[in-house]
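Exercise 7 asks you to align residues with tokens for two separate proteins.
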Amino acid sequence: MSTKLKSLLALSSSALILAACQGQDAGNADGGADDTAQTEDVVDQGADDATNESTDGEAGGSGSVGSEDADFAIAMVTDEGGVDDRSFNQSAWEGMQAWSEETGGRAEYFQSTNSADYIPNFQQAATQDFDIIYGIGFQLEDAVSDMAASNPEQHFGIVDSVVEADNVVSLNFADHEAAFLAGAAAALTTEKDQIGFIGGIESPIIDRFETGFLAGVEEINPDIDVDVQYADSFSDAAAGQQIANGMYTAGADVIYHAAGAVGNGLFNETRNRLESNPDEKLWAIGVDRDQEDEGEWDGGNFVLTSTLKQVGTAIQLATEHAKNEGFPGGENIQYGLKNDGVDLVQGNLSDEAWAKIQELRQQIIDGELEVPEFSREW
């Protein structure tokens, strides 16, 4: 496999949490999509509630669901992508809203527009008696570490990183496994043998996506060219659109993004091109949540598939464990294909391609196929 362009350029578990994950149907991605749809019904209502209760905080504002008198309350601080990034942060907030709806607990988000907002948002949350405050994304690692050290009685959570402290639970995901399946799906679908990957910010987390994706493409056809580019952002949709434009112009017909709200630019560019030339065959692959709704256009839907990252589910499970069994402080809980922490939806994949994906999926779960996690030492 050749990479045409690359620019800008442990395992610990909680028995109750993993048992809850393993109780789900790991082989039914369509069922997972149904669950997502049901959750989104709750989320749509919750989003309205959060909007009605939003306030101008010291940083990027906040919103909440649930009663102020709830017996358990959780909060999250977003990364720069924001709570409505249609991806990573939104998945976390959707899970928190679903938890609030199911349990009667209170949930609140504190939105960050840049890294300068992280500490002020955590400080604001720490004054409001939340049982757990979650930092969403590896960019908040330092902020969580600092806040945990200065607030030893407050419980924190970090997603996509590890903070070694007794008052912090770390939630991590085998993103490379789902990305591998996305790479295989792209390779099975491309008609031009040219594929693109758009990353957000170069980091161990996004390298995991890139490495898995490239390995999946190579598993199907090592002669396919993959154009890898980074936006150096998780929020700049214009940069995403510019990168996608260049990739499509160079001949790519399938592009996967692991870039948060930057991916909205990919969707915009794909839609614009298809509306200008309906006979063109272009596909985008979503990330973190089923993003098929982003692919609607007059001629159908251009989102081929999406990798799922059950951030919201992980937060719900960690929260319920803390509420019922005690806070799992100091633990690093890993979620992968085997326990439904990550996955791929069928979306618009052909039945033939989906059958191959299911075969590869099972091989990974059974340990017959090992997916590389990183391209280099971090």
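Second protein for Exercise 7:
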Amino acid sequence: MLRADAQRNLDRLKAAALEVFRERGLGSPLEEIAKRAGVSVGTLYNRFGSREALIDAVIPDLMAANVERIRLDANAATDPWERVERYFNGLLEMQIADPAVSDAVARAYEGSPDVSAVCAAALDEGARLLDAVRTGDPSFTRDDLGALLVANSALIATGGADAARRIVAVLLAGLRPA
């Protein structure tokens, strides 16, 4: 159990990290996070030890909540193909809206088993939805969906959200059952 002041510092650091990462991505300066939390960089490192540990403390829950919201929205559709479209487009819009999520997807954050697990679950759900309507290209796999998400992250990072949307639209058109 942490002292009350230590718990407050921890809570402020996590909130500040989430804000800064969501604004600027996972490569944001840790000094900016500490400043926003009102603590020293030393306090940040004493509490988390590394950037990866800080990412692990805040990003997996954010990603899991977003993916669950997208999954629920997709599965609310009655048409199986609409489920696929909602899911793929929902993942893309999540990446566009949130640089932290896009960065985590792009890196599949190797240093983070929790981020990797959320990404794996998202890919599994996409593959499951696609398998339910499979008459399109049978060679498109779960790993291809992962590659698409990584490519989208790169496009989004260079200001190409519209290009990422076009790629998803073309991909979905190619996979759509005849």
